[in-house]
Amino acid sequence: MSRSWLRSCHPNRAFPLSGFLCPLAASKVRFQRQIFLAFSRRCATTAGSEVRVRFAPSPTGFLHLGGLRTALYNYIFAKKHGGSFILRLEDTDQSRLVPGAAEAIEDMLEWAGIPPDESPGRSGPLGPYSQSKRLDLYKQTASRLVESGHAYHCFCTPQRLELLKKEAMRTGQTPRYDNRCRHLRAEQVQEKLALGASGVIRFRLQEGVEPFEDLIFGWNRHEVAQVEGDPVVMKADGFPTYHLANIVDDHYMKISHVLRGSEWLISTSKHLLMYHALGWRPPVFGHLPLLTNKDGSKLSKRQGHIFIQRFQEDGVLPETLLDITTNCGSGFGTNRVGRTLNELISEFNPSKITTHSALLDLEKLPEFNKIHLQRRIQDEQQCASLVKDLQGQIRRAFSGEIQDEDVLQEDYIRRVLHLRRVNCLFFSCNLACNSYQEVTSNHVNCKKKKSPVLLKLLSSCLKGHISYLRELVSPAYSYLWVRPSFSSQQVAVLSTEAKHVATLAIKLAEERGEAGAVGQISQDLKTLAKKIKSTKYPDVMRLIRLTLSGLQQGPSVAEMMVALGPAETVHRLKKLLLLHETN
């Protein structure tokens, strides 16, 4: 097959194209289609017919956003091409293992909705999937490299290596091994081994590295032998280093595509030398650009808030994390807020992944979570799960304070959840938005375009909805579960006509009953306020709000009445009457 390489049309990448037509003579649409088709052919080039990708974290810590994003792109790539997503734990650094991290990583992938097809927990045909259980395979491969002359035993002590490092730093050079043991004669090696000398096995780097084509960064070539010493592939404790273990596992697990962070790009030439030495066909490589903080600084495990378990504990929905980590990056036909996992898979276009770092702005997390919480509330099955979760939170937050167990009933909690959605008519904003997602997407876009008038309208539409389920057990919403208390002094500040206000409000609640809607009750309250002689409308609303919730600010009075229901509304208003009569 004839192949030509497109270099000039993209500053950072080159794509193999077959039957390529010059973009100057083709339309933009045809040109983009040719790039996509060429890239798709490249993505499908595997040792077999099945696409197999892997996420290979080290359980030296818990899963964080950077790791989740790498796992997500692998998962999406696999599902886009009908392939398999494998979780492999690289636990060869036994001294740094964190207890419970291995199990937690797989649990978090399950929670995020991107479960592996094969893993330590699920098993599979090409396991085991923990490197510590594959040591014999690494030892056999390392011995094979030694026998073929591509690797050698090294007996340099840690003290000598430390002296080399200090001398290099003293002279302003990059520390590197000087390959001293590469030149040991066979009889010298055997003599040391016979005496039980401790040592490692190093891979013999060669000059003249062949270039390789990365799916994202295009053609690359790093002469590692010129800048590095021969790397250790088998440590003295019998465990392999990453460089050996990852190529052995990728080969025997039949990995077709390696999608990993761009920090490994420079090591790929070294890995390809090993593939060549073993006579193995390497997988296709694609190095994902870094996920960074919004200021461009690197995500760090020292930032406690980037761990997935922390987000889970804070009430962030898994689909929110998938959405925000892809929204700030690239690789999709569109860049919109509120995408589901199925939409991400459908819209995924590897040829659109850029080499630029993805800037993550966690200040937008509430907006993203708001969208996906709204979706869950609207879905019957997912709403049932939210109700169960909220019931548990209510019991924990207000244990011993709940006077009426009816507040834990499913129907009541569902009503509360639906009322805490957007409480505005989308068309009232003159935006012709057909859904909450559309309003929120436009809200984000307005921020980017700095449209203050439109932004104000959209913000009013978004104001009524909670971002996190836990907000409903905060003091601002405690009135939904616990009957409030208030004093005669608070009432007196607002009105001297409390009895009249309470009487009219009770009549309104009883007349409207369960059929009362927020919009209609809001109009009725305006009519009610006109019947009050000396108390103005705002103070009438403050008085009723105080009676229903014990709060001076909060949701609209109409929404409170609908959420509480007519019976509970009347019960609380009668307390205002009783307080007036007592005084």
Describe the structure in your own words.
It is built from 22 helices and 13 strands. It is mainly alpha-helical. β1 and β2 (15-17) form a beta hairpin. α16 packs antiparallel against α17, α19 runs antiparallel to α20 (518-530) and α21 crosses α22.
Roughly what is the average pLDDT, rounded to an integer?
86
What class do helices, strands and sheet pairing give?
A: mainly alpha
Strand fraction? 5-15%
Low-pLDDT residue spans: 1-39, 422-440, 453-462
What is the total tally of β strands? 13
How would you name the oligomeric state of the polypeptide chains in this document?
A: single chain
User: Radius of gyration, Cα only, in angstroms?
Assistant: 32 Å
Number of helices: 22
Could you give the distance between the termini?
A: 96 Å
Descriptive key words:
single chain; 583 residues; mainly alpha; 3-stranded antiparallel sheet; two-stranded antiparallel sheet; 22 helices; 13 strands; elongated
SSE blueprint:
Blueprint: E1 4-6, E2 15-17, H1 28-43, E3 52-55, H2 65-80, E4 84-87, H3 101-112, H4 135-147, E5 151-154, H5 158-170, H6 186-194, E6 200-203, E7 212-214, E8 218-220, H7 224-227, E9 232-234, H8 242-252, E10 257-261, H9 268-278, E11 284-288, E12 291-293, H10 308-313, H11 318-327, H12 341-347, E13 358-360, H13 365-378, H14 380-397, H15 410-419, H16 436-449, H17 452-462, H18 488-494, H19 498-512, H20 518-530, H21 537-549, H22 557-582
Helix pairs in contact: 2-11, 2-12, 11-13, 14-15, 15-22, 16-17, 19-20, 19-22, 20-22, 21-22
